[in-house]
Amino acid sequence: MPETNDKNHDLNNKPKSNTDEAGESKMSINLNPRLMDTLTAFALGILLAVVIVLLARSASDQSTSNSVSANSSSKMLLTPVYQKSVTKYLRPIKTLDEQDIERARIAWKFFENNYQAETGLVNAADKYPSTTMWDTGSALGATIAAYDLGFISEKDFDDRIILMLGSLYELKLFQNIAPNKVYDTVKGTMVDYKNRPTETGIGVSALDLARMISWLNILAGTHPKHAISAKNVMLRWDLNQLIKDGQMYGLAADPVTQEIRFLQEGRLGYEQYAGKVFKMIGFDQKVSSTYNNEFKAITNIYDVPIAYDSRDPRKYGAYNYVVTESYVMDVFEHGYDVETEPLTNNIYQVQKQRWLRTGQVTAVSEDNIDRKPRFVYNTIFAAGSPWNAITDTGKDMEELKTVSTKAALAMAYLYPDDDYSQELLNTISTAYDPERGWFSGIYEKGQGYNDVFTCNTNGIIMTTMLYKKYGPLNRVLAKAGKIIQYKKAVQP
């Protein structure tokens, strides 16, 4: 506040005190005009200072509300811009709070660190230049979420999407049918699961393609300027060869003879998540898109009925893992229906019951782990037993059970008003590195964090925020008539 030359004068002209007949003290004030002007200026100066302080504090509070404490820096959120035709059906149903933004901001760190500028692809695991179509779908979903949440500008979003779609369009396909199971993220070339180059590839996963297609569809419906490119990527794939008799089939090259085999893919859970995607774009999935198919069986765990796939792994060569991820992704992207709502409720309730009865917070799913064998299926039910943790060959991994970060957070957002959801969020609240993203989980036996950073875990956390904000996006787009329909181009 600027000083006045009359400050000392004011102090020296304090009015004297008088006492009236009743003994009460009164102030007799008789100020000259110059003094009045001085006091007015003084008061206005104080008022101006107060206003400045309040404005500064308001700006600071606004900045803090948009910042992420995990990054120890204030970051203003950008405002995403959607076409008017899109905003007619893409309408928020809930508002994200500061904790939602913070969780997503941590997850986005993984994608900032693992983005490959040469191809637009993202590593499936931290610093490991390899990816699958499943993980690429997760990366696409995370990028859509990053723009919607205000983490990246429209320019950054378009640059990333255009480069990614361009690389996907140029990928060498397995047997000229569909993408290979694995690609090098720097070179965009086919590799095996150990990231070793292969000219012929190792096979095709129909389940992985379904996740990729789901997010290509969401991209096209929310950002129409990328719709043609998204559809053209998909039209390069001969999906007709992967669908037969209402089911999905993958391809596998024999590692010795290189003979190509068509193998039915999917067991109850993941099969329905993927089957609904193929049904959405126009394929017959009368077996794979419904949970009430001939292979569904029920087991009771803690008096909670849990659905599982009855196909014997000794005959069909694949285990059925009942985990959280497939059910929550089905709801997040396709929404509840008469089949999924009770099944998903039971998936949540049975894990809550294990916590109530044992004290062990439970959120199980398949995850990468930071020690051998590097990947474990931590299940509600598998190989005939509840709470089984096994490898893909059925080897027991009881000592490596974890609380899965993605499963815990996803369930908490599906059931935000249930008391167990708060337990889940409290348990995984510190399972992250602010500069690298969310860990895959926490070991149940006390071995610490499972400090592996993956595209899938962080991608699911990012897209969980889209579910909270808009609901199931494929259902939103279906109601608006904005679903990509697959029609294989006729070859000349």
Helices and strands in order:
Blueprint: H1 7-12, E1 17-19, E2 25-27, H2 33-65, H3 84-87, H4 98-114, E3 130-131, H5 133-148, H6 154-170, E4 173-174, E5 178-179, E6 183-184, E7 203-204, H7 206-222, H8 227-235, E8 243-244, E9 247-253, E10 260-264, H9 270-280, E11 296-301, E12 304-309, H10 313-316, H11 325-334, H12 340-358, E13 366-368, E14 375-378, E15 381-382, E16 385-386, E17 389-390, E18 402-404, H13 405-414, H14 419-428, E19 432-433, E20 437-438, E21 441-443, E22 449-450, H15 455-470, H16 473-479
Antiparallel strand pairs: 1-2, 3-6, 4-5, 7-9, 8-9, 9-10, 11-12, 13-14, 14-17, 15-16, 18-21, 19-20, 21-22
Would you write up a description of this structure?
- The protein has about 500 residues and is of the alpha+beta class.
- It has 16 helices and 22 strands.
- The N and C termini lie far apart (about 80 Å).
Summarize, please.
By secondary structure, the chain is α+β, with helices and mostly antiparallel strands. The chain contains 16 helices and 22 strands.
* Rg for CA atoms: 30 Å
Task: Tell the overall outline.
Answer: globular
Structural class: alpha+beta
The fraction of residues in strands falls at 5-15%
**What summary fits the major beta sheet?**
4 strands, antiparallel
Oligomer: single chain
Residues in helix, %: 40-55%
Number of strands: 22
Figure out the total of helices.
16
Instruction: Give the termini separation.
Output: 81 Å
- Flag low-confidence runs: 1-33, 50-68
Q: Let me know the average pLDDT.
A: 88
